[in-house]
Amino acid sequence: MPASVSLLPVTGLAEIRPGDALAEKLLACLQGQAESGDVLVVTHKIVSKAEGRVIDLNSIKPSEWARQWAERWKKDPRQIEVVLRESAGILRMEHGIIISRTRHGLVCANAGVDRSNSPGETVCCLPEDPDASARGLSQRLSQGLGFTLPVLISDSFGRAWRIGIVNVAIGVAAMDPFTDYRGQDDPHGYPLEASIMGSADALCSAAELVMGKTAGVPAALVRGFAWKPDECPSSRSMIRPLDQDFFR
Amino acid sequence: MPASVSLLPVTGLAEIRPGDALAEKLLACLQGQAESGDVLVVTHKIVSKAEGRVIDLNSIKPSEWARQWAERWKKDPRQIEVVLRESAGILRMEHGIIISRTRHGLVCANAGVDRSNSPGETVCCLPEDPDASARGLSQRLSQGLGFTLPVLISDSFGRAWRIGIVNVAIGVAAMDPFTDYRGQDDPHGYPLEASIMGSADALCSAAELVMGKTAGVPAALVRGFAWKPDECPSSRSMIRPLDQDFFR
């Protein structure tokens, strides 16, 4: 009998500020809430904030190029400057939209630089190393809770072909980000050849259903999903190499 | 206090065969299981099967072109022929992989034609009109249950940039497929400009966590998600127009 899966908002977390000990704050909320077998999904925003990846726009001097482009598309030139600095490469830059490849290899709008849920005249950037951030959280939380708690760090990305942003996993710790059905048979005995599910992304998309954008819930527990332990997973493994990307 | 969301596998559904009254079979399972406020996610496979969209490969005479291509990449030429027939356009056709645009406007591998979870020498195609299928199911189930039950029809798609297939909604009935945060403010008072969540896709991705590929669970209830009623939603609205697709 297949089990059900629950998505539980993590409540009681106060606003995170630069330098905050995020793991300790999460641990205090999760004591009595988290159970063995759960996965924790954390929006990158609170990780970035705790790690000081919040940039005061008043400290930014935009380049001439950023200024011109921002003026043309009625954007804040300081924010454009941060987006350009955070981009390892630019895929598109038109109609006021910048699609970047980040240093992590992620393809997303504005290199993940975001003004929403960031206080005052600041923008929030992606964590420097989301896997390391996830690992740090998972290790401390697992130690404090007495069982392994995998951690996924999520962000909302736009997609090719489809409208609407969905959450994906930009950092992963303690679990295999995929469910690999290859080598298994379907109920009719036919081998499942091309079936690698992006489970980490699906878990992050699921968690969004209880986090929302305005509810101020930056973390959620997923209970009942049979994740596979992996001591050293990498979010890089979720990035499709360009020469195998037939879906663009 | 934000609510939790539950993903509940729908159990007790026997193998679906062409001509089966799917709504009646689902209704029998959902009586006593479904609650007001739930969303039903159904994998397209059982919809396609009930609607007779299963093709016996022995009835297919491949074209010379399908034969040559299949031989080169060691594929079943009859299956390639079906894929070509189901494609409104071909985006890529290399290394044995066909990425098609279907008549529904969906971009996916093999036009959604799939051999897994299809009996014997048959392949399963996408429903002719997944929104109509979803609407038919939603209407009958809502009538039988005494409350509105939105229905999403899901399929697993590969994606640009990222590895691992995830579920998306190819058909929708009775609910808005998006959660539109535009015009709302984040907790800091900053307006959320570009935030339209692909909720229908997220719900289908979430449902996959309890459906799996080998467990034989072709439907799931999502409980606790605050969907917005929409009498006439369209899965076409989820397809990004090419001239606005900066993510490819």
Architecture overview:
The structure is a homodimer of 248-residue chains. By secondary structure, chain A is of the alpha+beta class. The first copy, chain A, has two domains: 6-49 and 129-236, 60s Ribosomal Protein L30, Chain: A (2-Layer Sandwich), CATH 3.30.1330.100; 54-123, Alpha-Beta Complex (CofE-like fold), CATH 3.90.1660.10. Chain A has six helices and twelve strands. Chain A has a five-stranded mixed β-sheet with strand order 1-12-2-8-9. A three-stranded antiparallel β-sheet of chain A has the order 4-5-6. In chain A, a hairpin with a 2-residue loop joins strand 4 and strand 5. In chain A, helix 1 (22-30) packs across helix 5 (130-145) and helix 3 packs across helix 4 (77-86). The longest helix of chain A has 16 residues, at 130-145. At the A-B interface, strand 1, strand 4, strand 9, strand 11 and helix 6 of A face strand 1, strand 4, strand 9, strand 11 and helix 6 of B.
Summarize the structure in short:
Helices cover 26% and strands 23% of the residues of chain A.
- Overall body shape of chain A: globular
Total individual domains of chain A: 2
Query: What percentage of residues of chain A falls in helices of 4 or more residues?
Result: 25-40%
Largest interface: A-B, 81 and 82 residues
Structural features:
248 residues, 6 helices, 12 strands, 3-stranded antiparallel sheet, homodimer, alpha+beta
